[in-house]
Amino acid sequence: MKTRATELLGIEHPIVQGGMMWVGRAELAAAVSEAGGLGIITALTQPTPEDLVAEVERARSLTDKPLGVNLTILPSINPPPYADYVKAIVESGVKIIETAGANPEPFMDELKGAGLKIVHKCTSVRHALKAQRIGVDMVSIDGFECAGHPGEDDIPGLVLIPATADKLEIPFIASGGFADGRGLAAALALGAEGVNMGSRFMCTTESPIADEVKKAIVDATERDTELIFRPLRNTARVASNEVSREVVQILDDGGEFEDVRELVAGARGRTVYEKGDTEAGIWSVGMVQGLINDIPSAGEVVTRTVREAEQIIERLTTLSA
């Protein structure tokens, strides 16, 4: 299945693993890449830039296929040393970076000079056009269904993907709401060159999160997420639990970030993934969990998704015969 995305990234199948905090580690990324997709290591999951280089080397010991690194740049009280992480990404030798959050323009010259392909995650057509203007190679367009930050426009993929296709000249992949071949076939039909899947790869055998969290994803429905930080215009989609519902209530009642700071602490979310207590804190998952019914290997997710998409495309071509 060849598209502009597979040609640009040097991969066999138009499937990219999301760069998820605490999840995008060597074993998962390598398994996705080995199956022909693009595995992504999450830079800020690693405590230091040096650790990131070591994690890339570890993934390279598991596969010789292309790998990428995600760097999400967000406002923070104590921001990570983003420039040092960029240097580490360059030094690691990977040739693909997925940027998200803030504008990657300050790092473009360094990344381009090192020969990296830059994929920037956007939640709107206007942001995708800005990314194109500053010179990124590809966009990952993120619909309202997604886990994490869906932006503030609330545009779902069924509209956002073709709207992007109408305006963008560089290739783009679709993100948010994808878990199987039906989604891949639909994304291609709507004008995307592939898909980015996060929650689906969270729920695989190589995913480094606790089995209890994977089971919770399997058991959940598409209705079991919450949108937190809406009044602060920094919306994030997370799993629905006692903590996230409390955060929503406090902010809806006029609370400020300081009133929920302890509830949303990243350390508590990390505990969820490591200990398996799904009520311990805030943790990200998309509406697509309603389509996830098993815990296969990451490689099986890739091959099954492509196989299903090919079968759907073949069936659809018979409709006009």
Shape: globular
Strand order of the largest sheet: 1-8-7-6-5-4-3-2
Strand content: 5-15%
The CATH homologous superfamily of the largest domain is termed Aldolase class I
Largest sheet: 8 strands, parallel
In CATH, the architecture of the largest domain is Alpha-Beta Barrel
For this structure, the CATH topology of the largest domain is TIM Barrel
Fraction of helical residues:
40-55%
Name the CATH class of the largest domain.
Alpha Beta
Number of strands: 10
Number of helices: 14
Provide the number of structural domains.
Answer: 2
Give the low-confidence spans.
none
Report the mean per-residue pLDDT as an integer.
97
- Give the termini distance in whole angstroms: 22 Å
Rg value:
19 Å
Order of helices and strands: HEHEHEHEHEHEHEHEHHEEHHHH
Describe this structure in words.
By secondary structure, the protein is of the alpha/beta class. Helices cover 42% and strands 14% of the residues. It has 2 domains: 4-208, Aldolase class I (TIM Barrel, Alpha-Beta Barrel), CATH 3.20.20.70; 221-284, no CATH class. The protein has an 8-stranded parallel β-sheet with strand order 1-8-7-6-5-4-3-2. Strand 5, helix 6 (125-134) and strand 6 (138-142) form a beta-alpha-beta unit. The longest helix has 20 residues, at 298-317. Keywords: Dioxygenase, Flavoprotein, FMN, Oxidoreductase. GO terms for molecular function: dioxygenase activity; nitronate monooxygenase activity.
